[in-house]
């Protein structure tokens, strides 16, 4: 199709007007629009059934793990723990333990990961840890309200729900 000079001129005009509108119209929120993010729920969806050496997590008769989680930042600092609120004796086919939480971050410069532990009367057994995720990355990806993280062997899976507050 051969465009007439008038059609080309019209197209040029429309493009000229549409371009700034499109630029102004990008009302996507930015991190500056939010003052904090809150982790509102954490669930351990999957975990190793046995210790690395094949033993049960505990001795008979309550040999299933007593699961809790820690949130640790990239510097190794403990941010949050449910150590005193473990879920006792979670069986292989039980639903994963779930906690309602109110873990607040007033900036997004944190890289976090979940550690999953078996609570014991003496030293607790480390069960697994998920790969780390950064809050700023979740913001960049559209202020995600759900994150699922897993260990490198994909056996330990932890999910979290988030609320971004303006
Ligand atoms: Ca144990
Ligand atoms: Ca137990
Ligand atoms: Ca235990």
Strand count: 9
CATH topology descriptor: Immunoglobulin-like
| Spans where pLDDT lies below 50 across 5 or more residues | none
Which of globular, elongated, flat, extended, rod-shaped describes the shape? elongated
What's the domain count? 1
**Structural class by SSE content:** alpha+beta
Bound molecules: calcium ion
> Which architecture name does CATH use?
Sandwich
Mean pLDDT, to the nearest integer, reads 90
Question: Which superfamily, in CATH terms, is the homologous superfamily?
Answer: C2 domain
Oligomeric state of the chains present here: single chain
Percentage beta strand: 35-45%
Q: Helix coverage percent of residues? A: 10-25%
Q: Tell me the Rg in angstroms.
A: 24 Å
- Counted by DSSP, the helix tally is 2
* The CATH C-level class name: Mainly Beta
What's this model, at a glance?
The protein has 166 residues and is an alpha+beta fold.
Structure write-up:
The protein is of the alpha+beta class. The chain has one domain (35-165): Sandwich (Immunoglobulin-like). It is 16% helix and 36% strand. It has two helices and nine strands. The protein has helices at residues 5-25, 135-140, and strands spanning 36-46, 67-73, 78-81, 98-105, 111-118, 125-129, 133-134, 146-150, 157-165. The strands form two sheets. Strands 2, 3, 5, 6 and 7 form a five-stranded antiparallel β-sheet that branches. The longest helix is centred in the N-terminal third of the chain and has 21 residues, at 5-25. The radius of gyration is 24 Å and the shape is elongated. The model has no long low-confidence stretch (mean pLDDT 90). It binds calcium ion (CA) (3 copies). One calcium ion is lined by residues 57-58, 65-66, 118-120.
């Amino acid at each position: 199709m051969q465009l007439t000079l008038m059609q080309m001129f019209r197209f040029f005009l429309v493009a000229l007007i549409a371009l700034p509108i499109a630029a102004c119209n990008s009302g996507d929120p930015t991190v500056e629009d939010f003052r904090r993010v809150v982790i509102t729920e954490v669930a351990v969806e999957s975990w190793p059934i046995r210790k690395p050496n094949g033993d049960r997590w505990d001795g008979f008769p309550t040999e299933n793990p007593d699961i809790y989680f820690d949130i640790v930042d990239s510097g190794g600092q403990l941010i949050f723990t449910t150590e005193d609120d473990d879920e006792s004796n979670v069986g292989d086919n039980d639903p994963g333990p779930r906690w309602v939480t109110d873990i607040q971050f007033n900036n997004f410069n944190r890289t976090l990961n979940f550690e999953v532990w078996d609570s014991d009367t003496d030293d607790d057994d480390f069960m697994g840890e998920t790969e780390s995720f950064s809050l700023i990355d979740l913001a960049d990806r559209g202020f995600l309200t759900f994150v699922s993280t897993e260990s490198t062997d994909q056996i330990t899976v932890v999910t979290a729900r988030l609320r971004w507050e303006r």
